[in-house]
Amino acid sequence: MSQPRQSRALVIVNTDFCSSDGDVVFGTRRGAKREAEKLSSILSRLNYKVKLTHNKTAKEIEDLYQQECCCEHGEYFVSVISSHGKEGLIFGCDSEPVKLTRIFQILSSEKCLVLTKIPKIFFIQACRGTEFDQGVVVECDSGEPEPECEPDCFSGYLSIPPQTVVMFACSPGYVAFLNIFGSMFLQALLKVLEGEERHLALNRLMTRINWEVAFCCQARGTYEGCKEMPCFITNLLQEVFPFSA
């Protein structure tokens, strides 16, 4: 009996950025490489065939997604992008922008027949603006709040193709934090994938990540006390369990 095809995962992490004339444009993203390697390792343990890439230009990033259209895929396609960014785009290591809608278009059913019916799941660690989230004081007398409600904060213009889920590290307009130990968002994702929560349906798993970042993480040092609020957008029509290996 033939073995089922492995689900695929594409992990893109950019840490060093220069312009076409060699000038340093953005700061070095210390901690991002090690974090991406950990994610790649755990996705491999969850039976994904993982492709991990470092410091890719804008054109190379687009090419990586074009290549996925020629691969054999299993039940799911997962992609993690860790880079500098702005609302609606991320930057290649050449400091050139890549529109997220361009990536989604490459993997749409019109362009990529092999992924038409396969859930496509994106985790994007990048800033979406320059605002700092100061957080709010939450008062409750019922212990930890149940992380069951989906947030509805996302960019109205951001269209995604069918069977796609996108989870952002932060809300529109805000920065996403990263230090030498990693990012709030991807560290929370790692924690969930390493625990029993990985068996949850995807929308519940992402809501659990929201709770973890919102209630257990805050910035230190220069931005002492600042918070971060991930959010996600989905057009799946059914519950999926992509990490319940």
TrEMBL record:
<protein>
    <submittedName>
        <fullName>CASP3 protein</fullName>
    </submittedName>
</protein>
<feature type="domain" description="Caspase family p20">
    <location>
        <begin position="5"/>
        <end position="131"/>
    </location>
</feature>
<dbReference type="InterPro" id="IPR001309">
    <property type="entry name" value="Pept_C14_p20"/>
</dbReference>
<dbReference type="Pfam" id="PF00656">
    <property type="entry name" value="Peptidase_C14"/>
</dbReference>
<dbReference type="InterPro" id="IPR002138">
    <property type="entry name" value="Pept_C14_p10"/>
</dbReference>
<dbReference type="GO" id="GO:0006508">
    <property type="term" value="P:proteolysis"/>
</dbReference>
<feature type="domain" description="Caspase family p10">
    <location>
        <begin position="182"/>
        <end position="244"/>
    </location>
</feature>
<comment type="similarity">
    <text>Belongs to the peptidase C14A family.</text>
</comment>
<dbReference type="GO" id="GO:0004197">
    <property type="term" value="F:cysteine-type endopeptidase activity"/>
</dbReference>
<dbReference type="InterPro" id="IPR015917">
    <property type="entry name" value="Pept_C14A"/>
</dbReference>
<dbReference type="InterPro" id="IPR029030">
    <property type="entry name" value="Caspase-like_dom_sf"/>
</dbReference>
<dbReference type="InterPro" id="IPR052039">
    <property type="entry name" value="Caspase-related_regulators"/>
</dbReference>
<dbReference type="InterPro" id="IPR011600">
    <property type="entry name" value="Pept_C14_caspase"/>
</dbReference>
